[in-house]
């Protein structure tokens, strides 16, 4: 099978990436420059610098090759785990290069450079899991899934106590996609998903009140549900925190909309007011008033894009992500190397679900988790990590070793039925 993404055309993956980066630069210029058409904004210049670093690291990742990095996958994974553990250790030992921001410890500061170890952890996790799964067959049994899940839950546990819920949400989709690509039985994966769904009521009862408010408030953004809630407050009693009356619960939700939910409400307003063609570049109240939409350059940057360029700009962004996903999966389909295939599936799923999570959060159909939009949001660690993912995908597309064995991840179902009844 041939593909347009192999050999000299492998760098075609960068085309949609560079389009997204261009949108990011224009947005940073509009948000941070008093005269967007003349004065280069410092934020845009800084973002351009991060893009340059990302391109260099993407080239290095492609030059070194995913196979060489795979040999060091476990070591890289362990090093990332130790760094994440050190972030938590700083709560007891005050380390000057690990600052606390908004009650979270997610960054390492070295001079003016700020690093977020969880971004590196995502890449190390994909490499380590792909290296583990590449020639094994025991995950074809239900009990054999224990090791991949343990490999996943350890970094998830260290990241969630930072706390960083947004990054944690990416690990399980990547795990399931890689297990499916490696040949794990669908019924086993469905059983695990069913067990997880059965635990959701326990999750709901044990989350904090502000988290409960955030989730219910997100649902009630639909006007019809809001009207029903106001008319039938007692029917929502299961969602209320213990020892809270219906009136108190409604009052808290109103307060949530004016405070914690302010960002979601105004983000949806920014998207809706953009219309089909938008207000125009560097125009509109959401550009002029920085207090109208908090985190407009990070978590809610898509709302600004849709406000400036309307439905047309939003569709361009969506098409770019769709192109990245299609080309990434095409890379996975073409390569015969089992490790390369799993790396391509894992990295593509990582980018896809990060973008999907951010977009769902912005339009109000997903929880606000503080996750960035790949290649568009302001920031360095996430942007550079996303470029490294693209570099590794290029490496998989370009470097296709000759495999002197049967095709990867093909199994004899009849033989397995007798050797592994589960």
Strand order of the largest sheet: 1-2
Note the total helix count. Answer: 19
What low-confidence regions span 5 or more consecutive residues with pLDDT below 50?
4-8
Helix content percent band = 55-70%
* % residues in beta strands: under 5%
Compute the number of structural domains. 1
Query: What is the global morphology?
Result: globular
The end-to-end span amounts to 34 Å
Order of helices and strands: HHHHEEHHHHHHHHHHHHHHH
Average of per-residue pLDDT values: 77
Q: How would you describe what is shown here?
A:
The chain is mostly helical and about 425 residues long. It has one domain (about 5-405). It is about 65% helix and about 0% strand. The protein contains 19 helices and 2 strands. The protein has helices at about 15-30, 40-65, 65-70, 75-90, 115-135, 145-160, 165-170, 170-180, 185-200, 200-205, 210-220, 225-230, 245-260, 260-275, 285-290, 300-335, 340-365, 380-400, 415-420; strands spanning about 110, 115. It is globular and about 55 Å long. Residues about 5-10 have low confidence and may be disordered.
Summary of the model, kept short:
With 422 residues, this protein is mainly α. The chain contains 19 helices and two strands.
Topology, please?
Blueprint: H1 14-32, H2 42-64, H3 66-71, H4 73-89, E1 108-110, E2 113-115, H5 117-133, H6 146-160, H7 165-168, H8 171-182, H9 186-198, H10 200-206, H11 209-219, H12 223-231, H13 246-258, H14 262-273, H15 285-288, H16 301-334, H17 338-363, H18 381-398, H19 413-419
Antiparallel strand pairs: 1-2
């Amino acid at each position: 099978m041939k593909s347009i993404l192999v050999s000299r055309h492998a760098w075609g993956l960068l085309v949609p990436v560079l389009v997204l980066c261009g949108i990011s630069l224009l947005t940073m210029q509009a948000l941070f420059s008093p005269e967007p058409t003349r004065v280069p904004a410092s934020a845009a210049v800084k973002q351009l610098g991060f893009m340059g670093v990302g391109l260099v690291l993407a080239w290095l990742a492609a030059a070194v090759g995913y196979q060489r990095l795979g040999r060091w996958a476990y070591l890289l994974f362990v090093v990332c785990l130790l760094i994440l553990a050190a972030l938590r250790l700083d709560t007891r030992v005050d380390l000057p290069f690990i600052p606390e921001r908004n009650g979270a410890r997610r960054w390492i500061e070295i001079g003016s450079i700020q690093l977020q170890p969880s971004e590196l952890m995502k890449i190390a996790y994909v490499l380590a899991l792909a290296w583990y799964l590449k020639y094994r067959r025991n995950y074809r049994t239900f009990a054999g899934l224990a090791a991949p899940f343990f490999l996943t839950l350890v970094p998830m546990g260290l990241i969630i106590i930072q706390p960083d819920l947004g990054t944690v949400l990416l690990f399980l989709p990547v795990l399931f996609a890689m297990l499916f690509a490696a040949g794990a039985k669908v019924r086993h994966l469905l059983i695990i998903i069913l067990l997880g769904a059965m635990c959701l009521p326990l999750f709901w009862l044990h989350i904090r009140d502000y988290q409960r408010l955030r989730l219910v408030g997100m649902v009630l953004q639909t006007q019809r549900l809001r009207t029903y809630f106001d008319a039938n407050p007692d029917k929502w009693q299961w969602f209320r925190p213990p020892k809270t009356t219906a009136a108190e619960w409604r009052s808290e939700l109103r307060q949530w909309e004016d405070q914690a939910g302010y960002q979601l409400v105004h983000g949806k307003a920014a998207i809706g007011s953009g219309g089909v063609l938008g207000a125009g570049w560097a125009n509109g109240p959401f550009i002029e008033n920085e207090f109208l939409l908090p985190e407009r350059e990070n978590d809610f940057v898509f709302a600004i894009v849709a406000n400036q360029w309307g439905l047309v700009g939003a569709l361009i962004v969506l098409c770019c992500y769709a192109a990245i996903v299609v080309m990434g999966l095409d890379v996975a389909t073409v390569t015969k190397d089992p490790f390369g295939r799993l790396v391509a599936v894992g990295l593509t799923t990582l980018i896809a679900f990060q973008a999907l999570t951010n977009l769902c959060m912005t339009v109000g159909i997903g929880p606000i988790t503080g996750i960035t939009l790949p290649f568009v949001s302001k920031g360095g660690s996430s942007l550079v990590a996303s470029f490294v993912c693209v570099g590794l995908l290029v490496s998989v597309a370009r470097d296709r070793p000759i495999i002197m064995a049967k095709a990867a991840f093909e199994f004899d179902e009849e033989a397995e039925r007798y050797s592994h009844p589960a």
